[in-house]
Amino acid sequence: MLVDDREDNLLSMASVLEPDGYYIIKANSGRQVLKLLLSDFDFALILMDVQMPNLNGFETAALIYERERLRHIPIIFITANNYGEENLFKGYRAGAVDYIYKPVNPELLRVKVGVFVELYRKNQRLMAQEQKLVAINRSLELEINERKASEEKVTELNTQLLENIARLESANKDLDLFAFMASHDLQAPLRKIRMFSDRLLANPGEGLNKESRLYLSRIQEVSRRMQDLINDILRFSKISVEKQPFEAVDLNGVMEEVLSEMEGLIREKNAVITVDKLPVLPASTVLMGPLFSNLISNSLKYTKKQGEPRIRIRYEEAPVGSGVNGREPEIHYGRIYIEDNGIGFDQKYAEQIFDMFRRLHATAEYEGTGIGLALCKKIVEMHKGFISALGKPGEGAVFIVSLPLQESRKDKTADVQPGLPEENTN
User: Fold this and answer.
1) Does residue 339 sit in helix, strand or coil?
2) pLDDT tens digits along 159-170
3) How many CA atoms lie within 13 A of 126 on its CB side?
4) Could you tell me if 20 and 86 lie in one domain?
5) pTM of the complete model beyond 0.90
6) Fewest CB atoms within 10 Å of the CB: 27, 81, 116, 160?
7) What average pLDDT does this structure show over 353-381?
8) 69, 127: one domain
9) Domain boundary pick from 84, 104, 124
């Protein structure tokens, strides 16, 4: 959907996008947007002007996202003004995923729209696969419970179910690979932005006034945050696609390395961290470091403005059940607790904080990309473990990582799959 109160701007953007075969709907006001969204149309993306009479772009976005069924639609704001950080954050809090400045660069517009449309198409395919899987599960349950299907029929349906699960996993891997490649390709132009802005700021003879230098500093700060986001997406996608071999890992050594690498941040926060003796367990050496690094960074990030940050890392073994009817005993788990005295959180958000891009606080208050805890969850699940959180506003948080203390028989030999292309960090 294209939204602008000027017809010439709508025609200009439509002329850029129509050759790519998109189905475009135009609106010239916030109210018209809301009316159109009441229809059965589903939009891959909304490109919306900020300055409009009656309802501006920010207000329209806020009204759109009040409706649950519309919250999945990304919004790119188009503006002729270079807003300060406060207004930029206002736009992002209203639901914006990006800004495009006028006069609109046709190639930039085409590329950005292409990325979001492709993500929408892949998401639709994934949802269709999930719906098929649910339908097959329901069909299988009805066959077993109501018709007492023959063993051959059950086997056939199970085979179909496994095939659909395989297709669903393949679709998930394709989506992860797409996210990796898209993020990887964004790094080159971002590095140039940072390099050229660094050169301008480093050379006082360029004749830049105070306001220009301020804008350049803001460009650097936004570029840095975007670089952090891209790097986190790359790490998440790489972990999702690759499988790592397991070996006996001494978590005490892992924790020592993590705390050594974070020594500067710990000293800056004046934090006190105590660590109990941790176990040796089967795990990926490559993944244990990022797991605990993200969890400790999270505790250091959400500290109170007053008082000394304290983090305690302790360990206990969970009780194990005995085998039943000659079967193997249940898997024995070890629990690692990361406890802090920070700002905490409302327990009703305990599951949501592990979702991708989920943030309970504005970026202006606490920096971050909203990927760290999602990455932790992915790593723990790859180890057949569990992660949970307990919190209370103003009273700190506790993250509990439960990992198997031994491998199950079927996991004794870990498959190692070829990884993604190496990330270019130059």
Assistant:
1) strand
2) 888 877 777 766
3) 14
4) yes
5) no
6) 81
7) 68
8) no
9) 104
pLDDT of residue 420: 38
Between vectors from CA 234 to CA 230 and to CA 239, what angle results, nearest 5°?
Answer: 150
d(CA 334, CA 318): 6
Of residues 392 and 320, more confidence is placed in 392
What total of structural domains would you count in the chain? 3
DSSP-derived pairing of the beta strands 397-404 and 386-391: antiparallel
End-to-end CA distance of the chain: 38
Residue spans of alpha helices (H) in 27-150: 30-37, 57-64, 85-94, 106-146
State which of 49, 81, 104 marks the end of a domain.
104
DSSP 132: H
In-domain check, residue 326: yes
Mean pLDDT of 20-42: 86
Nearest to 39, CA basis, from 82, 75, 77, 70: 70
Q: Residue 420: name the closest of 182, 223, 254 by CA.
A: 182
pLDDT above 90: residue 313 = yes
Domain annotation covers residue 420: no
Q: Measure the CA–CA gap between 146 and 125, rounded to whole angstroms.
A: 31
CB atoms within 10 A of CB 169: 11
More confident of the two residues 55 and 367: 55
Alpha helices in 147-209 (DSSP H): 151-202
Domain that holds residue 49: 2-104
Whether 188 maps to a domain, the answer reads yes
**Nearest Cα residue to 369 out of 263, 277, 297:** 297
Contact 180, 238 (CB under 8 A): yes
CA distance 28 to 7: 7
Distance from C-alpha of 132 to C-alpha of 164, rounded to nearest angstrom: 8
